[in-house]
Request: fold
Amino acid sequence: MYYVYLLSSEIHEKIYTGVTSDLKTRLAEHNNGNVKYTKSGIPWKVSWYCAFENKNQAYDFEKYLKSSSGYAFRNKRLI
Reply:
């Protein structure tokens, strides 16, 4: 399974969108400061995720969420 996820920073008003095959391990990496783009927002919590059986579908949906229309969809429907 592949997971598209949204993380919320508990200290800033930031949302991070990502994809992984191991959500628990990836969240730990974010909170341990191992991810360059999320170091400044530690601690992070998972605010939403969706599971996909197909890797390409997961990456396509992540790409959509990072687009302008996906950003609007995310803010209106997911968070």
User: Anything to note?
Assistant: The mean pLDDT is 96.
